Amino acid sequence: MTTFPSISGSKLIRALRKFGFEVMRKKGSHHFLQNKDGRCTVVPVHRGETIGRGLLAQILRDCEITKDELQKKL
Predict the structure, then answer these.
(1) pTM above 0.70, yes or no
(2) I need a surface site. Which of 6, 38, 57, 72 has the fewest CB within 10 A?
């Protein structure tokens, strides 16, 4: 199993923007991102906290992005 660095919500949003995702709206600490082709996801942004492995895996599935592709954009 490959090790994946812990990542904050704001850093993940910056990386997803490089894939063409844009923040459509915010509700509290949750940012709703959508791509022009219709893919969408929700990223929580909590100060001082990182995104857990399970949630990160779900976000990547929603965005149809692999861990390797994300790591190249970080």
Answers:
(1) yes
(2) 38
